[in-house]
Amino acid sequence: MISATPETRLRTRVFALVTILVSLAAMAWALHGVSWSDLWEEIGELDWRWIAVGALADVAAYVIQAWRWSLLLRPLGPVSTWSATRAIFVGLFANEVLPLRGGELIRCFLITRWSEIPISVTLASALIERIFDGLLLIAGLFFSFRYLQRFPLNHGQARALGLLTDGAIFLGVLIFVCAAVLAVAMYWREQALEVILDSRMFGWAHVFIEDLHRIGHSRYLYLSALVSAAHALMQIVPIYAVMQAYGLDEGSWKGAATLMILLRLGSVAPQAPGNVGLFQVLSTLGLTLFGVQQAMARRFTLILWGVVTLPLLIVGFVALVATGAKMGEIHRDARAEMRARQDELARPW
């Protein structure tokens, strides 16, 4: 089995350290000037019925994602929505406690452990999910930019919006490139295998493309694409619910949708555990674009972060306990499985 070299481990640690430091700097900016007495008073005045709606919708959004994932994997093996739900919530819990979104690898590894589907294919299915989400995100960005044109922007806000636009363009190009590569593997199996044979790739890739071909020719692929829309819409509900609970005058479905899209765009970047830092910065930026005073936006952002994070921590911890394993063990086993796959790269088929 191939083990990580000291240089690779050092680069990973440095990258993780830089990510955490940047996230902490962003968090410090978001907390600057926050009146904790005002925040505590506002928490006491929240409409907790709306908070309950937001927390339940937050959990429901990932149950819908689990349903979508089980549909994607159905042509390859029997993966129940329940199993996919457990894997996703363990992965979400890992994202809250581990840096660099290690939960994506963990949830794919758990499905591999509970089924006979190779981890390379479960990772590819997760990539297909991200492409679905990305395409919806790009479409939503056009809606968001049109919505934001209603509000007067100062020079700094206009510049920040320009940076977000540039990031969206880059993300869109990346999504379409990934979608094209996967489309070739799913729909043009013979041509893809011919390329592999000509470049002397390896046997695992042959199985990988065969499985992708089965996904691409299944009606469940298109059904999962439709479920992606429900998954995206459900993610708007927690934000709207917290806006109503807080009594935010600028709160509306359009505003909640725009804020959700900004947060989803920010989630693409590597972050510290718990999405600390960038979540608060983007939320504050989005709310100030709507005309919310910055001091109020910073306080609201902390409440929103708590409502969308704590339920996932609680449900994720319960799902982890149900697996009967510790997070450290699962993470080590997941990385070992990936190294085993890398070891196959050294053996031509």
TrEMBL record:
Origin species: uncultured Acidobacteriota bacterium
Record membrane topology: Multi-pass membrane protein
Principal cellular location given in the protein's record: membrane
Alphabetical UniProt keywords: Cell membrane, Membrane, Transmembrane, Transmembrane helix
Pfam families with a match to the protein in the record: LPG_synthase_TM (PF03706)
Protein name in UniProt: Flippase-like domain-containing protein
Transmembrane segments: 46-64, 131-148, 168-188, 220-241, 276-296, 302-325
Alphabetical list of NCBIfam families matching this protein: flippase-like domain (TIGR00374)
InterPro entries registered for this protein in UniProt: L-PG_synthase/AglD (IPR022791)
Cell compartment(s), UniProt: Cell membrane
A single cellular component GO annotation: plasma membrane
Keyword Transmembrane helix in annotation: yes
